[in-house]
UniProtKB/TrEMBL annotation:
InterPro entries noted in UniProt: CcO_II (IPR045187), CcO_II-like_C (IPR002429), Cupredoxin (IPR008972), CuRO_UO_II (IPR034227), Cyt_c_oxidase_su2_TM_dom (IPR011759), Cyt_c_oxidase_su2_TM_sf (IPR036257), Cyt_o_ubiquinol_oxidase_su2 (IPR006333), QoxA (IPR006332)
NCBIfam families: QOXA
Annotated ranges, domain Cytochrome oxidase subunit II copper A binding: 124-236
Organism of derivation: Ectobacillus antri
Originating gene: qoxA
Ranges of residues in domain Cytochrome oxidase subunit II transmembrane region profile: 20-118
Membrane disposition: Multi-pass membrane protein
Pfam families linked to this entry: COX2_TM
Swiss-Prot/TrEMBL catalytic activity: 2 a quinol + O2 = 2 a quinone + 2 H2O
Segments passing through the bilayer: 6-30, 42-66, 86-105
Record-given protein name: Quinol oxidase subunit 2
Main location: membrane
Localization of this protein: Cell membrane
Enzyme Commission no: 1.10.3.-
Alphabetical keyword list: Cell membrane, Electron transport, Membrane, Oxidoreductase, Respiratory chain, Signal, Transmembrane, Transmembrane helix, Transport
Length: 288
């Protein structure tokens, strides 16, 4: 009896908590750039198509159970023997095939389109940033700007960013939900990922792949700035930030949790990115 009373006290609180939790913004459907917008549209399109199928199935199910249910006026009814209906069999075979085709075509088109800079920014030169995952932190190297940051990355708003993903240690997953989908980081490999923020703001990135006890701390901030702010930040880093020595780099990538760091050079001076193997469709396509 006491257990039942306790359950009746806890249940309402649990339901209220669940409903309030649903009031938070769903970042996947809050796109802040063209890449995330394309993927969000694809998700909505897929849900709409599947919900249409569910609606049709439930409507037909309701019609069948109401129209053909047992009633006082048909208690003795025996349906005739039927060997099958060719047209019905064609319909229920063809419809699922058409649904899969509709989902596949849109998914393939969107996926391949995102392997290059966003269409709206195709005339803007992308900024290139190397992303290196380690246990349990993220390193961002700007080869052209000669800057490196740890656990945060600044980017200019309205400019496509070509992230070149790699890892030192276990495979991980680089994900900024409001800017685009995730892509894996692998030791000795490079994968390209294009992202873009339409306006200034801060967006939380995280690891989407379990990599040990410090996995929950593998979050980073993407800070989108105006062109003037980004230029000012670069100049400030070059004049005030310390240099990243090879010893310091080797110390950073050891397993452990660290805070934000900024350096006026990058570890690519010690690790040749050209020695890494590309794992990228467009790279091999162009090479051929």
């Amino acid at each position: 009896m006491q257990l039942k009373k306790a359950l009746w006290k806890v249940l309402p609180l649990s339901l209220i908590t669940a409903f309030l939790g649903g009031c938070q913004n769903l970042v996947l459907l809050n796109p802040q750039g063209p890449v995330a917008k394309s993927q969000s549209d694809l998700i909505i399109w897929s849900f709409a198509l599947l919900l249409t199928v569910i609606a049709v199935v439930f409507i037909l199910f309701t019609i069948v159970i109401i129209r053909y249910r047992e009633r006082p006026d048909n208690m003795d009814y025996e349906p005739p023997e039927d060997e099958g209906n060719v047209w019905l069999e064609i319909v229920w075979t063809l419809v699922p095939v058409l649904i899969v085709i509709a989902l596949s075509v849109q998914t393939v088109k969107t996926t391949f389109a995102l392997e290059k800079p966003p269409e709206k920014s195709k005339d803007i030169k992308p900024i290139e940033i190397y992303v290196t995952s380690a246990n349990w932190k993220w390193l961002f190297s700007y080869p052209e700007e000669n800057i490196e940051t740890v656990n945060y990355v600044n980017i200019p708003a309205g400019v496509p960013v070509k992230f070149k993903l790699t890892s030192v240690g276990p495979m991980n997953s680089f994900w900024v939900p409001e800017l685009g989908g995730q892509k894996y980081t692998m030791d000795g490999m490079i994968m390209d990922l294009y992202l873009q923020a339409d306006k200034p703001g801060e967006y939380t990135g995280r690891s989407a792949n379990f990599s040990g006890e410090g996995f929950t701390h593998m979050e980073f901030q993407v800070v989108s700035q105006t062109a003037e702010e980004f230029k000012k930040w670069k100049e400030e880093v070059k004049s005030t930030a310390p240099k990243l020595s090879e010893d310091k780099y080797n110390d950073i990538i050891k397993p452990g949790v660290v805070g934000r760091m900024t350096f006026s050079n990058h570890h690519l001076d010690y690790v040749d990115p050209e020695s890494l193997e590309y794992c990228d469709y467009n790279y091999y396509k162009n090479k051929k």
